[in-house]
Structure formats: C-alpha cells, structure tokens
Design brief:
five-stranded antiparallel sheet, Type-II_Cytokine-TF_Rcpt, Ig-like_fold, INLR1 protein, elongated, 2 domains, 1 helix, Immunoglobulin-like, FN3_dom, mainly beta, cytokine receptor activity
C-alpha cells in the first residue's frame, strides 16, 4: 500500500525576531506522524540545493534557517517535502528572501541598574549566534510618567550601556527602546514595553 502523500501547504520563508524561518502547514489528510525535510538554495547558485542537517525528518512545521545560511547577503529560498514511511510528497518551494535586507527586528529587553546619582541602562537582543557580529544598535527614550516629552538617546551599539545622571530627576520615570539595523535602508523594531522606576524617592 503506497500512500499518496500530499505536499506541505503555505510554504513561506519569513524573517521574524532576527531569525529567518521557513514555515508550512501539513498537506491535507497527512498522517499524524508525518515528518518533513528542508533544503535551501542561493540565488547565485541556482539548482544546488543545500541540505539542512537539523531539519531532516523533523515532526514540526517550521525550520530555523538563520545559522545554516552560508551568506546573509545573498537571496535564498527553501523547499520542503513531507516524508512518511517510504512515501514522499513532491517538494514545495518558498519565495526568495535575504537576511540582510529582509530581517525583521524584535524590540530589545531593557535592564536597569539604579545607583545613587545615576541609572545604567543596557539593552539585550534575542540574537541567533551567527549574526552576533552584525552592527546592531538601539535607541532609548526616557520620559516622566504621564508626560509626552521624551528625552532621546540615539544610535547606541548593542553592547553599550547608557548612563544617565539622575540627580535632577524626581518621580516616576519610564524607559523604552527599539532595535536598529542599517541595511539597504535603516530598519527598526517597535519600541519595547515601557519599564518605569521611581527615582530619588524620599519615602
């Protein structure tokens, strides 16, 4: 009995939260224990489909390709097939994308370190290891809770800590940041959820 295995559907290469991910949905009537295998090709080497070792016969319907890509500046596309026992579906291809210009950023996570007369703010990003050395930056906003007037600190490198003198600040102050990336044009994430602290509060 050879089962006609239907190919995966909605095969999409998407860039989300600093990562390049291939996603798909199971073909109609797929058995519950079906698995998937993914390969990718570069636009400058068409028809040379590269294997992705961590996405061979996987049960889940996505594959993180970020660190499998040999070049983040060349457009790639991926393909996926369903495998079940000895049956295999046809391959289905995604569209072309490249990490460099298509990367989508997630807001950074802020860490606040309150000292006597200053506050130290640092931003961490959920980055895949292979893109650590790209030039990620962030912008930081500071404002008094309830006020529309924001003080901006712009263009800090990812590992930089912003030190703010708080001697003149009294009350509840809020911080929010966004990630930046200079590719073909400047990209930025949404601003992070505000983190607020009471400064120089004489209880």
């Amino acid at each position: 009995g050879h089962v006609q295995l239907l190919p995966p559907q909605n095969v999409t290469l998407l860039s989300k939260d600093f990562a390049m991910i291939l996603t798909w949905a199971a073909g109609e009537g797929s058995p519950p224990d079906v698995t998937y295998t993914v390969r990718y090709e570069r636009q400058d080497r068409l028809d040379k489909w590269v294997k992705v070792p961590h996405c061979k016969n996987i049960p889940r319907a996505f594959c993180n390709l970020t660190c499998a890509l040999s070049n983040l500046y060349v457009k790639v596309r991926a393909r996926v097939k369903a495998v079940w026992g000895r049956s295999q579906s046809p391959w289905v291809k995604s569209q072309f994308k490249d990490y460099y210009s298509d990367v989508e950023l997630a807001p950074p996570v802020l860490t606040l370190n309150v000292r006597e007369n200053s506050i130290h703010v640092s931003a961490s990003f959920p980055l895949p290891t292979c893109v650590e050395n790209l030039t990620w930056k962030y912008d930081l906003n500071l404002w008094e809770a309830g006020s529309k007037d924001k003080k901006k600190y712009e263009g800090y490198f990812r590992k930089d800590t912003v030190t703010i003198n708080t001697t003149a600040l009294r009350g509840n102050y809020c911080f929010s940041a966004r990630a930046l990336y200079e590719s073909i044009n400047l990209k930025h994430s949404e601003f992070s959820q505000p983190v607020c602290v009471l400064l120089n509060h004489k209880g």
